[in-house]
Amino acid sequence: MSADTLTLPTDVQVFESVTNIKLWLENHSRAGPQQTPEEITSEDLAVAVPGECLFPELNAENEDASHEEEKGILVYTDSQEDKYIWLKGDWHPLERVLGITSPKNGWVRTPCLGERLLVLVLTQLDYAAREEESEVPYGCCPLGDPAYLLWHQQRPAGMCSLKRKGTSIWGGEDLYACDTLDTMYVRPHVRRQGYTLSLLHTLASKLPPGDHLGLSHPVSLSMCKVLLKFIQVYPELRDAMWTLDEDGEVSGTATLMLGSLMVRGALQGVRTHHPHHHHPPHLSQPMNEAEQPMEQADQPMEQGQQQKQCRDAQSQDSEPCDTS
């Protein structure tokens, strides 16, 4: 394993890092990373990021491939359950990959495959390693879905993806009726710092008159708490949020959903905030002006039709998001 720091891989380097278990075992010494002088076997390897999530042309090839022949970005898990990612011709610890730095700040749309890879590493490896087994896993966000990285102190700290209004729901004939926040994840150490609230405000406030922002199913309880705070802080946007059912159809307004939860006592104990007394910290660049998420109405990972990935969409706070 090389240097302690890792730079963002170029599109070419991402492509060259795609392999499969069979090829890797044939072409490498099978020696583990320096800290792990164990011999690597096929049982230690897995595809962390399916190749078609980065290069759609691999979809047909992977569809009928065996476990050892499926192409993608590999992950090696050692005997201590530490994970290493095969990237740029070497094994890199998960935290080294997530330690890639950038001068960007806040929510910024991913412009290249290297950043797209970070989105997938966050959901396929970091989230999976930290959350309880009872939590719904993320599917891989298709390349056509607009995705954003949350940059905190110059490092990737979260992601979100959108579904555009008018795009197909699960590859069928039905279409999304509105731009939809599909999935979201914020790393635990930066939760409760206002990032989720800031994202919702950015998305909702940029909507054209008469349009709405959809929230994909299911909406977690922690996200409901954020939404409750949102309509208290931004009452003028309370009707801009719609909730969707598991089939992607509009089921009602977020206000209606929250009212139902409050009647049932599900939000009992949640503090209310006077809009004049509480304002979430605004990010210096909640989303680059040139790449506002609403131009991509479609959420981060639920691959439209590829993998009916479980829509953690709003698993923010208790799962992927923060509740500030």
Automatic annotation (TrEMBL):
Classification via PANTHER family: N-ACETYLTRANSFERASE, GNAT FAMILY-RELATED, PTHR22442
Name of this chain's protein: Soluble lamin-associated protein
Biased composition regions of type Basic residues, renumbered to the chain: 271-281
Top-level division of the source organism's lineage: Eukaryota
Residue ranges with Polar residues bias: 302-324
Chain segments carrying region Disordered: 271-324
Family matches, as InterPro entries: FAM169
